Task: inverse folding
């Protein structure tokens, strides 16, 4: 039967907040495929369902308010429906969805969709909310007045969804006809331009009028697919004629559409004489209250932030433990040798490190989906906009940046709620400057070793606490400065005004929240996982090779000697075990020193000496480019104190760092060097997973490259200024 | 009179949206067209942006944009 019935393709078009995603999920369930439209950040989502023999594919398009193609989302929506998006087979028909409780504004987009030259069904969603508001609908009259079939549904409760499925599988409705009119002079210009478009075969005949209206009456200054010169010339000439008559052509489309929509709604919808104060209003009276609003917001953000740290801890430890167990088993099962080492130290260690971020990502996406679905997210932007504007960003950038204090990966994923592409890009680029949880072990090591907790600043504050706070503050200040700079250089262009809907509060749909969570987790594991796997293997290789190096001592012989001594009874078992452990540690340290990564550390020593770093710190910094927390373990290895937990958290590493001397006898570390190291870690881009996610979210290698370069330069210059400035001030020792 | 000068709770009729064409069009698409009734619901805690009601829904816009909306009081 598959041959006789090719799947019917439908495009799902609707405003943000009208329940579009809920309907998409209700129609297609888990039969979804998510990707990206090539070259852009817009998500490409397709789902399918079957009615009897007929298979139906639904293309979920981004939520938009208009099809004027002024934003990327609007352009993609338009291009997909018109069949101009080359990688996407054009849909046969359009399923428009509108919020019945907010119909006038929702119909604006629907009237535009009706002019794309495809049959249209209109799903009227949230009928329950509309009725609770006191609205009454004459659905037959509405369908007649609009000229499209209207199907009432309550998507989040599944009401009417089956009937909608049946309708969508049935015969296609006739092509809609444009029933609203522009002033006569403009109408004449539209007719002429549509004629020219038809002659040029720019669009299907049925879509020509709609395209003519868009081209003529929309001021699309940043159109990345401008029309051909002859059309552009015709548009300019027509606009000049209209302006000559004193007509403000740019105001004509909205006035015309809304004028007609108002008459349609008046004829088909009954309204109560007075609207009651809604629950949503009562909630907002608190949530956006002058005093309680910010208090609640701060509390909520603190709670989210805290839960990412605390709730995630147990599952993170569990994953870490599971990876360790797996490593131990693998170590035993596989024959000893290089393949064993690669599997355990390379693959499992590398991929395991990424896996531990999963709980944080799940928890954060959970909260974000929840805040988004309830409608709070828009209020957060409403409250924070004034503050964020100072930096050149909008209120919507706040939550992604806050999330990045836990981990930049979910933070960058959270930028999806920022619909302006430039604002989103700037937010992605500065998010990794927020001090994430992976930097904490580095700060803890440096502060623990060189800023004793009992030391006080001005008698009150513990120096250690002040240092830690200063590192977090430095990240924020750097992010603000860099964001400001990007807005004036690479990613120029005024932020668009904040014209944002504040949707009514709704009970979140568990299904939507869960699907959002799992989809985010799946994408993270898949994309970041593949990149991390490759890098883990490369790093392992660099740290483990070359194998055949001239070692300073014959460790194998010494080990044999210890074993021999035990056999002869000259050394106790316990002593022997300790000696063997020391030998192993020393051999590991020496091999690390002579590996490619150790050689690289020595090679870059002249480069990093001005920062106060010796080659050992260099090795740590280089290894930390995969993941920051690796720094501590690597230092433990190169300082030969063993890399088990006890050695790192205990005083052994502190003592080793404090005791290290340059060849000329000066101590390697001082509080100044420790600060220099921390400043480097605040500013440097040392996280492969973040780069992989930035690649995913920006859909190009260009922006991760920019991120890597600017942050590394910033880190170098920052550390250089700290170290050299500190020495100049006489803080060297 | 412009929208940004209205008191919280006041209702007015939109006469005209001035300013840059792109912003005018964005506001109009959101329903801010001639003759529509707008009510100022509240001001954000930090003094900007505004929340207004029109066509049965809530819209947030900054004072800069509200200053471009000419209204007449009822």
Result:
């Amino acid at each position: 039967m598959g041959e006789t019935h090719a799947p019917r393709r439908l495009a799902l078009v609707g405003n943000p907040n009208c329940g579009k995603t809920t309907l998409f999920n209700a129609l297609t369930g888990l039969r979804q495929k998510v990707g990206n439209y090539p070259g852009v950040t817009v998500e490409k989502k397709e789902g399918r369902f079957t009615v009897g023999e007929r298979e139906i594919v639904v293309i979920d398009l981004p939520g938009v308010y208009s099809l004027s193609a002024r934003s990327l989302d609007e352009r993609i929506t338009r291009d997909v429906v018109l069949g101009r998006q080359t990688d996407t087979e054009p849909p046969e028909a359009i399923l428009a969805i509108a919020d019945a409780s907010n119909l006038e504004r929702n119909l604006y987009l629907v009237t535009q969709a009706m002019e794309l030259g495809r049959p249209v069904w209109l799903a009227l969603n949230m009928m329950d909310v509309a009725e609770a508001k006191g609205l009454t609908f004459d659905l037959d009259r509405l369908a007649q007045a609009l000229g499209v079939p209207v199907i009432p549904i309550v998507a989040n409760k599944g009401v009417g969804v089956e009937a909608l499925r049946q309708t969508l599988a049935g015969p296609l409705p006739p092509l809609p006809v444009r029933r609203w009119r522009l002033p006569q002079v403009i109408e004449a210009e539209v007719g002429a331009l549509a004629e020219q478009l038809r002659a040029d075969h720019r669009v299907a005949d049925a879509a020509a009028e709609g395209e003519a209206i868009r081209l003529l009456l929309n001021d699309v200054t940043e159109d990345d697919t401008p029309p051909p010169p002859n059309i552009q010339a015709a548009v300019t000439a027509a606009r000049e004629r209209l302006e000559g008559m004193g007509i403000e052509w740019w105001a004509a489309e909205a006035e015309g559409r809304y004028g007609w929509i108002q008459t349609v709604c008046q004829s088909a919808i009954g309204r109560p004489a007075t609207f009651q104060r809604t629950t949503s209003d009562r909630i907002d009276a608190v949530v956006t209250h002058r005093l309680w609003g910010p208090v609640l917001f701060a509390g909520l953000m603190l709670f989210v932030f805290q839960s990412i740290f605390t709730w995630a801890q147990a599952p993170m430890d569990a994953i870490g433990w599971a990876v360790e167990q797996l490593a131990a088993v693998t170590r035993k099962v596989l024959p000893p040798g290089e393949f064993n080492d690669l599997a355990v130290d390379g693959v499992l260690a590398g991929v395991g490190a990424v896996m531990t971020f999963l709980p944080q990502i799940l928890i954060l996406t959970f909260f974000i989906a929840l805040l988004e679905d309830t409608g709070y997210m828009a209020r957060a932007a409403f409250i924070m906009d004034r503050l964020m504007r100072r930096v050149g960003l909008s209120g919507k950038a706040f939550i992604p940046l806050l999330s990045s204090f836990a981990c930049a990966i979910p933070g960058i994923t959270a930028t999806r709620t920022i619909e302006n592409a430039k604002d989103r890009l700037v937010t992605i680029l500065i998010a990794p400057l927020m001090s994430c949880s992976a930097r904490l072990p580095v700060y803890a090591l440096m502060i623990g070793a060189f800023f004793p907790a009992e030391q006080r600043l001005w008698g009150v504050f513990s120096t250690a606490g002040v240092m830690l706070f200063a590192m977090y503050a430095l990240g924020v200040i750097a992010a603000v400065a860099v964001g400001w700079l990007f807005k004036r250089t690479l990613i120029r262009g005024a932020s668009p005004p904040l014209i944002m809907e504040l949707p009514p509060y709704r009970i979140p749909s568990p299904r939507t929240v869960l699907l959002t969570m799992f989809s985010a987790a799946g994408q993270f594991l898949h994309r970041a996982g593949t990149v991390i796997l490759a890098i883990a293997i490369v790093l392992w290789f660099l740290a483990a090779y070359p194998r055949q190096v001239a070692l300073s001592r014959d460790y194998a012989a010494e080990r044999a000697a210890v074993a021999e001594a035990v056999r002869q009874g000259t050394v106790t078992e316990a002593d022997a075990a300790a000696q063997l452990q020391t030998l192993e540690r020393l051999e590991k340290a020496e091999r690390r020193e002579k590996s490619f990564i150790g050689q690289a550390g020595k090679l870059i020593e002249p480069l990093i000496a001005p920062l106060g770093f010796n080659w050992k710190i260099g090795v740590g910094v280089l290894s930390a480019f995969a993941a920051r927390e690796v720094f501590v373990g690597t230092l433990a290895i190169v300082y030969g104190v063993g890399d088990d937990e006890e050695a790192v958290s205990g005083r052994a590493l502190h003592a080793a760092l404090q005791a290290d001397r340059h060849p000329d006898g000066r101590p390697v570390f001082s509080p100044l060097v420790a600060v220099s190291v921390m400043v480097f870690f605040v500013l440097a881009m040392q996280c492969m997973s973040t780069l992989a996610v930035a690649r995913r979210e920006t859909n190009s290698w260009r922006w991760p490259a920019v991120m890597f370069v600017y942050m590394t330069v910033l880190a170098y210059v920052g550390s250089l200024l700290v170290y050299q400035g500190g020495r100049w001030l006489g803080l060297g020792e | 009179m412009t929208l940004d000068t209205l008191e919280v709770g006041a209702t007015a009729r939109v006469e005209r949206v001035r300013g840059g064409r792109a912003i005018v069009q964005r506001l109009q698409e959101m329903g801010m067209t001639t003759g529509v009734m707008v009510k100022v619901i509240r001001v954000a805690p930090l003094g900007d942006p505004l929340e207004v009601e029109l066509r049965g829904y809530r819209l947030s816009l900054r004072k800069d944009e509200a200053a471009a909306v000419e209204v007449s009081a009822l």
The longest strand of chain A covers residues 43-51.
